[in-house]
Design brief:
Elements (H helix, E strand, L loop, with lengths): L5 H22 L5 H7 L7 H4 L3 H14 L18 H12 L2 H5 L6 H11 L5 H18 L5 H17 L4 H20 L1
Length: 191
């Protein structure tokens, strides 16, 4: 079999990064390179032609997730600057973020909740990925703000989603989503 062209190599690399971004959000960064490459439709041997290390791929996957947000919600992607009605855009983000669909589809969900546990466990993760992540947190928190409370509200969203995912299959899961939705909706009407 002949060598792949530079264009094909770049396309393969992009496919691996996109696949990794989804798989890491769904299953964590402990996914094996072999499983990842298989999911991308490529051979395990091709990995090292594309990436210096798995850590480099993790960094690129995190960056990809923030730069190419998964369409878990078109409504949640509307920023306050794009909306004439901040409260309507804010409420759409809350409803979509705390939905059953988002709980059950981590691979296509928010990278903040998807990468939180892995970044917390990997203290030596590259500074670039951590900065991309921190910027993503701040940007999403700003969409919720009804004053200077955006970070606190976003913590409620992410925490509720993480707990709901961990208790999926138990009635508590949906109770957690609803409790956070109610608390955030009430905080928005007070702001």
């Amino acid at each position: 079999m002949g060598r792949v062209s530079q264009a094909q190599a770049q396309e393969n690399r992009q496919r691996v990064v996109a696949t990794a971004s989804r798989m890491f959000r769904e299953k964590g960064t402990a996914v094996s390179v072999a499983d990842l490459m298989k999911a991308a439709g490529l051979t395990h041997g091709g990995f090292h032609k594309q990436f210096a290390s798995k850590e480099d791929l993790v960094d690129e996957a995190i960056t990809h997730a923030f730069e190419n947000p998964a369409p878990y919600s078109a409504a949640a992607a509307v920023t306050p600057e794009q909306s004439e009605d901040h409260e309507t855009a804010r409420q759409a983000m809350i409803d979509d973020y705390l939905s059953i669909w988002h709980r059950d589809h981590a691979a296509d969900g928010c990278p903040v909740s998807g990468f939180a546990a892995d970044l917390a466990r990997e203290p030596d993760q590259a500074a670039g990925a951590r900065q991309v992540y921190a910027n993503g947190v701040r940007n999403r928190a700003a969409r919720l703000a009804t004053g200077d409370d955006g970070l606190a509200q976003f913590c409620t969203l992410v925490g509720a989603l993480a707990l709901a995912r961990a208790t999926r299959g138990n009635p508590l899961s949906e109770e957690l989503l609803q409790a956070a939705r109610t608390a955030l909706t009430e905080s928005g009407t007070k702001g």
